[in-house]
Amino acid sequence: MALVALCCMMCLAQAAEYNVDWVMNMHGWGNGRSFAAGDVLVFDYTAGAHNVVEVDQTGYNTCTPNAGAPTHTSGHDRITLHRGTNLFICSFPGHCNGGMKIAVKAH
Ligand SMILES: [Cu+2]
User: Fold this and answer.
1) What is the whole-number distance in angstroms between the Cα of residue 27 and the centre of ligand 1?
2) What is the pLDDT of residues 26-58, one digit of tens each?
3) Residue-wise over 84-95: b if at least 16 C-beta within 10 A, else e?
4) What residue range is the signal peptide (predicted)?
5) 5 C-alpha to center of ligand 1: Å?
6) Burial class (CB in 10 A: 0-12, 13-18, 19+), 23
7) Could you give the 3-state DSSP secondary structure of residue 96?
8) How remote is the CA of residue 3 from the centroid of ligand 1, in Å?
């Protein structure tokens, strides 16, 4: 029993969770933090007012979702980071251009 508890604690310690208050002007979010592959971002926003789209670099730069970009709409989206740069935008008109975009590097 103690061993099971210990294992659970170790698992929890390995993957961190970060709450993202998903709003306009996200500039600077995550600065000074170190993210690892497997960490989870939890995007919180009002469902129907925003979304979270996992885009590629071009999609990020142009604020236009690339073909096949996974889109999340629940208002409480849990997204696991992969190694490298993870790029997220809101695809509602004007939102990404208003700064509703983040780039998160995970090691
Ligand atoms: Cu939005």
Assistant:
1) 14
2) 999 999 999 999 999 999 999 999 999 999 999
3) eebbbbbbeeeb
4) 1-15
5) 40
6) middle
7) coil
8) 44
